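Dear colleague,

Following up on Tuesday's group meeting, I ran the structure prediction for the two-component complex that the binding team flagged. I've pasted the input sequences exactly as they went in, so you can double-check that nothing got truncated or mislabelled along the way. The structure tokens for the whole assembly follow below. Feel free to forward this to whoever is handling the docking comparison.

Inputs:
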Amino acid sequence: MFGILNSYFSNDLAIDLGTANTLIYVRGKGIVLDEPSVVAIRQEGGPAGKKTLLAVGLEAKRMLGRAPANITAIRPMKDGVIADFTITEQMLKYFIKKIHESRLFSPNPRIIICVPVGSTQVERRAIRESAIGAGARQVYLIEEPMAAAIGADMPVAEATGSMVVDIGGGTTEVGVISLGGIVYAKSERVGGDKFDQAIIDYIRRNYGMQISEPTAELIKKKIGSAFPGSEVLEMEVTGRNLAEGLPRKFTISSNEILEALTEPLNAIVGAVKSALEQTPPELGADIAEKGMVLTGGGALLRDLDRLLLEETGLPVIVAEDPLTCVARGCGRALEEMDRLGNVFADE
Amino acid sequence: MVEELNANFEAASAPSAKLGVLLQAAREEKKLSLEDVSNRLRLSLRQIKALESDDFAILPEATITRGFIRNYARLLEINPEPLLDIYRVYAPSEVSHSITLQSANILISSTRKPVWIKYIVGSILIALALGAWVVYMDYFHHMEAEQPVAVSSEDSAQLPPDDSSVSNEPMPEVALPFAEREAAADTASDPIVIQQSAPPVEPVVEKPTVPAIAPVVPTPAVPAGASPITSPSATTSPNTSVNTVVQPVASTKPVMKIRLTVNDTTWVSVIDQANNEIVNRTIPAGGVQRVEAAPPIKVVIGNAEGAQLTVNDKPFDLSPYNKLNVVRLMLE
């Protein structure tokens, strides 16, 4: 009886709690929230003073690297899992409240939340607990490759192999799916964040310049590429010269970024190759016919599909709207959750 | 060059244009062979030919084929969107794939029941059935064995004074006063024998060879199975010294007509003098059971509340014999 009342007062949600971005899908409405997973906290009156939530999401992301001493902008998710439990809970609570605004009662929804396939039981329980702490009535977990494949509209329930490579902010998930379940999955803690870090390290090493994370992300998005292309792009970057300690401008080319990204890209290629090695031959034949589908923000890195295509010799397809694939897949599972069972993951 | 190609392409991509034709034209414009495309996209020649001949049936599902078209368009440096629009028109209707496996949901039990359990259960059932039968038989035999003794004592003690009244009764068949006295005396346990004083008609065919043992309920010296009506001569009820109503039983003993009307489902059993069960049935509500037999007749009526009995077309009050909704009486 209370379930009916609760469902009247709060909508069921599917959450893609990502390292970089959090997306929320509301049942019957679609994706209603897409914000960076960043929380800004203000410390009042010295170290012993109380902490207040200053901003969450886009607003907080603008504070990253620009905040004074009493404000800290935190990314509570790291490598696809929770790094700061309390802040994650607060962030989820804030987002849930945001999409339920103008409601008299506090929302009490059922939540589907996705977890990396390689996450440990402790990490999964932390995600579940934080969702419950944020007001969820019931929490279902779904593994990211499954959600990504559903979101890319692959025939997951059919007796045919589908390979999905989801490159997120913190992790890269490679999954081979057939008959509604994951046949093989591998999670590599490499993603957009590692790309940024690789660019920061490269520039410090080769130019003696310190750049910030947001700048590294911008470089990656503008001129980053995973495969030597026909045209070379250049970009002017401002950083702090480590020797002089002063801000300096310099120009960097896409070929240099390609060199910088070699290490994390090799990790992704390695994960894909190892998945193909472990895939049963029958499913391997299906994958050779259809290729693999790239999802997640990492799939937007220029020529990443080309790199995987050349390395594996298989067709590679970037999914339509790869950034929201996992959230859409979670949403699809949410829409059909009442007659699903085997899609959800155990703790 | 590329812009020009794109412009031409946009012009050509009217909804009626064929996807394959556009792709082939763009490929030839780029001077690429099928093998070049196959090497670049890692698609098989068969798949590329299928794309260029609009043979979507042999290509994978729509989401993958759209990816192939996007990749191909990017290789040919043309805008993929018009191609995808055409594909959406001509492609087999895109149905969302089911995301769960349809299950027959038949539970597979891993523990097999041992075979001997069947035998144990079977033998327990058989034992129960046997026990029930034994109890049933024992109960009814007990009842039958009790009857003569009880009645004989009653008869010997109390019947003689009523003899005259019995004979004067307008309803000579049934010794009603006796029955009433029975009810008043409240001798709770025994079945009642209703004496029927048959009008003396014929001289008695004496059978001196058959001595009377049971005083009231005459044990007929008939072979079992003989019908009382078909062999009236055999129904030689012996004259007993104890029974005050001296019944000279003639060979042409009148037949007693019993009619039982019920207004609720009632079980009835009628046993004739030869101890043959003439009737043993359940009468449905509103049913009627007629019996014609030579007395004495033993009648047992279960659920007797709603039963009306007439004996020789005269109503017969069952209430004095009703014990726990079961009537047991002997009509003589």
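Residues 204 and 248 of chain B are 6 Å apart (CA to CA).

Cheers,
M.
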